[in-house]
Specification:
This protein has helices spanning about 5-45, 50-60, 95-110, 115-120, 125, 135-190. By secondary structure, the protein is mainly alpha-helical.
Length: about 190
């Protein structure tokens, strides 16, 4: 980019910033006017005689449009006031209590003494919430099995190496013993001769 292009880009940026600044100032003045109108409305309630003249002014000033809020980071609690907001459907909750009551009624109609069987039909895991580390335990079990296999292999390998070293040492010791005895035998034979 040449110097003139850079200067042109800087000038355009300054113009945009100036326009943005004017827009913000207009918004703040509109809000101040709105707050002033609210204060005037409170004063008007105190003075009923001035109320008729001020209503005409209030109607003219109520036309002021405020910028619509943009909800980027959260969903508002009251979505009726915000137009264009995406409202997610609420999930349907299963009423387990009604299911159990129905089962108890059905069992009690069949056999009066079979209430114990109802508790066997109800899956307790679906009723009680799972602990948050439930998945972690299952994942760790797989890894622990792998590690156990590796450790047993490593232990077996180390014991094999140790046994081989002991055999080599015993063979060298045996060779030394044989060598020394042969030397002693030779020495004794030389002495006898």
């Amino acid at each position: 980019m040449t110097l003139s292009e850079l200067e042109e880009a800087a000038r355009k940026r300054k113009e945009r910033l100036a326009q943005w600044k004017l827009k913000k100032q207009n918004q703040t003045t509109k809000r101040k006017e709105y707050e002033d109108d609210e204060n005037e409305n409170e004063n008007e309630n105190e003075n009923e005689s001035d109320n008729k003249n001020n209503k005409d002014k209030d109607l003219e000033e109520e036309i002021i449009e405020f910028p619509k809020p943009i909800f980027r980071n959260y969903k508002p609690n009251d979505s009726a006031n915000v137009s264009g907001a995406i409202v997610l459907p609420k999930p349907k909750l299963i009423d387990v209590k009604l299911m159990i009551e129905d089962q108890v009624k059905n069992r009690s109609n069949e056999n009066d003494n079979s209430v114990i069987g109802v508790t066997e039909d109800v899956d307790l895991l679906s009723l009680a919430p799972r602990k948050p580390d439930w998945d972690l335990k299952r994942d760790v079990e797989k890894k622990l099995k792998r590690l156990e296999k590796r450790t047993t292999r490593a232990i077996a390998e180390l014991t094999r190496q140790r046994l081989l070293e002991e055999q080599k040492q015993s063979q060298t010791c045996l060779a030394e013993v044989v060598a020394t005895t042969s030397k002693l035998n030779e020495a004794t034979q030389d002495d006898d001769d």
